[in-house]
C-alpha cells in the first residue's frame, strides 16, 4: 500500500468515527387547531417507539440511526389517518446528523429538512368511512 492510500484510509476511519456519534433525528410538530390532539405511533427497523399524544404546539423528537415508519391520527375519534416513512436510512451514502421536520396541519403533513419552507407531502385519509363499511383498519406497515 502506498503512502497516499494509507493516509486516505486513516482519514476515512477518522470521519467514520466522528460521525458515529451524530444520530439522525425526526421532529413532529402539532400545528392542528386548538383541542385537536395528534396521536403518533412510530417504529424503527429495530424498535417500536410507542404511542405519543401531542397537544397543539407540542413537539415529539426522535433520535436514531435506522429507518423510521410512522402512523398519525387526528380529529374527532382520530378519524383522520396517515402512514409514511418519516426517515429512510441506507443507500450508498451513510447520513449522520440528518434532520427531518414534519409539521402536522389540518390539511395534511408537511416536510422540510429545516432549510426550506415545508411542503405538503401527505394528505389525511378519512378512516371513519372504513368503519361504516366494516373494512379492516390500516395495518402497521
From TrEMBL:
Residues 1-20 form the signal peptide. Its main location: secreted. One of its GO terms (biological process) is rejection of self pollen. Pfam families: Self-incomp_S1 (PF05938). It comes from Arabidopsis suecica (Swedish thale-cress). One of its GO terms (cellular component) is extracellular region. Belongs to the plant self-incompatibility (S1) protein family. This is S-protein homolog. It is found in: Secreted. Keywords: Secreted, Self-incompatibility, Signal. It comes from the Eukaryota.
